[in-house]
């Protein structure tokens, strides 16, 4: 299985939002975010792998995040504004095709996001992406959608098909 080979070779560890990850870059330069947060590294990058049965739970990050498809099946990425006032937008990350699939997408700071591999066959077992965050990622800038929170209630009511990603 290629997914297990990548987990072992890249030394990936379980990620709290689902899947596997390893930080591969953390800038030594620091910046002061304009929103009042304390100084952060200018940029961070991780490998992030989702196996066919895994998903990235609904979450948001206080910095911009760039998702870049590296290999495996395309990734379904959903994003919505921080208050879920608009329907989640569905994007496909993967090799460029005529149907709109593109290899990268930037999720603006504070937007909700969730993802899962687009599996079409039993042999489709993973998606590997790189995620770059600027200002750099800090777990204090990260929050999950709470299953008993207002956002989860809105998601379940308006877009029940996406509630499994909470």
Number of domains: 1
The gyration radius over C-alpha positions equals 16 Å
> What's the architecture in CATH terms?
Sandwich
The largest sheet is: 6 strands, antiparallel
* Strand portion: 35-45%
Number of helices: 2
The CATH H-level homologous superfamily: Jelly Rolls
Identify the CATH class.
Mainly Beta
Question: How is this structure best described in words?
Answer:
The chain has one domain (2-49, 63-165): Jelly Rolls (Sandwich), CATH 2.60.120. It is globular. The chain starts with a helix and ends in an 8-residue tail after the last helix. The chain has a 6-stranded antiparallel beta sheet with strand order 1-2-5-12-7-10, covered by helices on one side. It has a 5-stranded antiparallel beta sheet with strand order 9-8-11-6-13, with no helix packed on it. By secondary structure, the chain is mostly beta strands. The chain is built from 2 helices and 13 strands; from the N terminus they run H-E-E-E-E-E-E-E-E-E-E-E-E-E-H. The protein has helices at residues 2-9, 150-158, and strands at 13-14, 20-26, 30-31, 40-41, 44-51, 56-61, 64-72, 75-80, 89-93, 104-107, 112-117, 126-134, 142-144. The chain is 10% helix and 42% strand.
């Amino acid at each position: 299985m290629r997914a297990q080979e990548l987990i072992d070779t890249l030394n990936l560890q379980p990620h709290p939002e689902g899947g596997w990850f390893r930080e591969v870059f953390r800038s030594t330069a620091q910046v002061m975010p304009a929103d009042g947060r304390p100084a952060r590294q200018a940029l961070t990058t991780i490998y992030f792998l989702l196996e066919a049965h895994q998903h990235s739970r609904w979450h948001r990050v206080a910095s911009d995040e760039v998702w870049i498809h590296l290999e495996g099946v395309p990734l379904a990425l959903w994003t919505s504004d921080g208050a879920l006032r608009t329907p989640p937008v569905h994007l496909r990350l993967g090799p460029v095709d005529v149907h709109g699939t593109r290899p990268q997408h930037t999720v603006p700071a504070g937007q909700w996001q969730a993802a899962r591999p687009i599996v079409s066959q039993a042999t489709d077992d993973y998606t590997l992406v790189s995620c770059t965050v600027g200002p750099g990622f800090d777990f204090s800038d990260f929050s999950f959608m709470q299953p008993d929170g207002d956002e989860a209630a809105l998601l379940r009511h308006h877009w029940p098909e996406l509630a499994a990603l909470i």
